[in-house]
């Protein structure tokens, strides 16, 4: 992973989201915020793991600096993806932010039990959604110090 306090190269962000509207709003947030980081999008849990493990179509995928993970995904849900990430020595240091529409207490508890770095409920209002994404990006990629690949 990259140390954003010392490197000026764009961060690699993996968005795992099956809702095209939320994908579009996230892309808009990056564009409106003039966020120079690279956003990669996959639409289900199986694709997310293929991207992370660089399998199949994702053989040349970069290692993400941050994962934005929806919980309600086709083929493999977000909890299963998060659990696999946290159980893998090569992937477990990647910050994973659960970004979901669920406000269920059990989902929040489960995500933190699986060591999510944060749990955010997607705002319904598009402007609030965009603002949330921009705030998340600034915090995780500008304020927080992430371990480098060597650490």
Fold and architecture overview:
This protein has five helices and five strands. A five-stranded parallel beta sheet has the order 2-1-3-4-5, with helices on both faces. α1 crosses α5 and α2 packs parallel to α3. The longest helix is centred in the last third of the chain and has 18 residues. This is Response regulator. It comes from Halopelagius longus.
Q: Which series of helices and strands comes N to C?
A: EHEHEHEHEH
Proportion of residues in helical segments: 25-40%
Give start-end ranges of low-pLDDT stretches. Answer: 1-7
CATH classification class: Alpha Beta
CATH architecture verdict? 3-Layer(aba) Sandwich
Please supply descriptive tags for the structure shown above.
151 residues; 5 strands; disordered N terminus; single chain; 38% helix; Rossmann fold; alpha/beta; 5-stranded parallel sheet
What's a concise summary of this model?
This protein is α/β, with parallel strands linked by helices. It has helices spanning 20-32, 45-53, 78-86, 105-113, 126-143, and strands spanning 12-16, 38-42, 66-69, 96-100, 118-121.
Annotate the secondary structure layout.
Elements: E1 12-16, H1 20-32, E2 38-42, H2 45-53, E3 66-69, H3 78-86, E4 96-100, H4 105-113, E5 118-121, H5 126-143
Parallel strand pairs: 1-2, 1-3, 3-4, 4-5
Helix pairs in contact: 1-5, 2-3
